[in-house]
Structures are given as C-alpha cells and as structure tokens.
Amino acid sequence: MSVVCDSHVLLDCPAKDTGEALTLIAEKAVELGMADDADALREALAAREAAGTTGMMGGFAIPHAKADAVKQSGVIVVKFAGGVAWDSQDGQPITCAIALLNPASEVSAHLAMLSKVAALLMDEGFRSKIQASSDPAEIAAAVNEGLDAE
Question: The whole model's pTM is what?
C-alpha cells in the first residue's frame, strides 16, 4: 500500500469549504511530486465529489481521484483549522480529509485503498487517534498501520 510520510500530513489548514479543500489537496500533490497538474487533479477530485459526496461521518472525508495528472499513488491527510462545510453523511462539518490519489490506470489499487480507508473510519480508536493528534509522524504511522493491516 501507499506510504504516508510526515510531509503528507497537513495540520491547521484554513480551508472553509469543499472547493478550497480540494484545491489545497491538488496543490500539495503537485508540491510532493505525486501529480503534475494541480488544475486537472482538482477537476478530477471535484468531479468525483459531484458524483456523490466523499464526506463520511464523525468529521472525516475521503476525497479521491483516479487521474492522468497523478503520477504516483499516494495519500494526503489534511486536518483543518475549523470545520469545513462539506456534504457529509451525518450533516456535520469535516475536520479531517484522507485524500487518495491514483493514476487513472490503477483502478484496482485505487479501490483497494478506498476500501481500507473506509474500513479504518469505522474504527473508533483510529478516528479518535487521528482527531486527537497534532503530530504528523503519529498520524502518518496510524494511517500506514491501517493501510498495511490485512
């Protein structure tokens, strides 16, 4: 599975709505070398969001995209400074997004990552650990451990 590095964990992000959050994720993906076109990636993330919200429950969202702009599969974890207005399943603001990015050709890898993160978000201990932590290394380790679990 993809490895989340400390540099893939963003804390206290100022985004106020879904559009700002997706732009932030796309720009960070380019900065990290995971993607080569922030606008194209943002459009792919927004198109996925338009097809059905990625806002889950308990303050989490799983924005994700398979796109030609993505050159290297990866995960970016974004914790927001405040709640982000996002169409979530429980109607609550999003405080943490776990973004999954894959090249367009990697459909099976994308689905495997999405399935694992969705399962992780059903675990109260995982959600609590991510929400409570302000340490990028601890957050990255928790996500990596969850992605590596069978």
Answer: 0.94
Helices (H), 4-62: 18-31, 38-51
CA distance 18 to 123: 24
Q: Write out pLDDT tens, residues 5-56.
A: 899 999 999 999 999 999 999 999 999 999 999 999 999 999 999 999 999 9
Question: Which DSSP helix (H) or strand (E) runs through 127?
Answer: helix 124-132
Q: Does domain 6-148 have CATH number 3.10.20.30?
A: no
Q: How far is CA 138 from the centre of its chain?
A: 16
What gap in Å lies between CA 137 and CA 105, rounded to an integer?
30
Residue boundaries of the structural domains of the chain: 6-148
